[in-house]
Amino acid sequence: MHTSGDRIISETKLEDDYLGILRVDAILNGMPVTRTLIEHPSGSVVLAFDPDRKVAAVLRQTRLPVLRAGAPPLREPAAGALEDGETPEETAIRECLEETGIKLKGVEPIGEIWMDPSSSTERSYIFLGSYSRSDRVQSGGGVDDENEEVDLQEESLADLWRAVEVGGPMYANMLICLQALRLRRPALFI
């Protein structure tokens, strides 16, 4: 439980790369503690879906932790780090265009999610965005200078939901997006 005396005493940066690693000394519940935190940039996530065809734009790319675990590439919504001066909505729209080639006119917010608040500063701003065939204005596939090797597919929402029901490995952001869309628009999954 958070008490009024909880406070951070000091932070020491142990590593400062794309991800920072911090040693944090604090007082929690009246007791001194030392924790290691991952300083991870926050980002936006958007599941782009076509309500007329009942499909979603789904990405797959090799992720080292998934590869290391021996699992196949996971289905992912478009996502990326917030850039300076950019709102989460702007990031979602930009990333969707870069990764899927789809120009969204707007996005519907789902929420701000802390990915692992016990050890990481990362937050994801989650959105849904509807599109039609005419909104595909580029090929997508990611940005060359970001070394993104993105496999882009359109998959039926019914098939994506079956993957949820089976319970195999799934990217948390994809699960959140699919659950939110199914709650808001269940007819798209039939």
UniProtKB/TrEMBL annotation:
Residues 39-182 form the Nudix hydrolase domain. This is ADP-ribose pyrophosphatase. It catalyses: ADP-D-ribose + H2O = D-ribose 5-phosphate + AMP + 2 H(+). GO terms for biological process: nucleoside phosphate metabolic process; ribose phosphate metabolic process. Pfam families: NUDIX. One of its GO terms (cellular component) is cytosol. One of its GO terms (molecular function) is metal ion binding. Signal peptide: none annotated. The keyword Signal does not apply. Belongs to the Nudix hydrolase family. NudF subfamily. Its EC number is 3.6.1.13. Acts on ADP-mannose and ADP-glucose as well as ADP-ribose. Prevents glycogen biosynthesis. The reaction catalyzed by this enzyme is a limiting step of the gluconeogenic process. It is an enzyme of class 3 (hydrolase). Its cofactor is Mg(2+). Keywords: Hydrolase, Magnesium, Metal-binding.
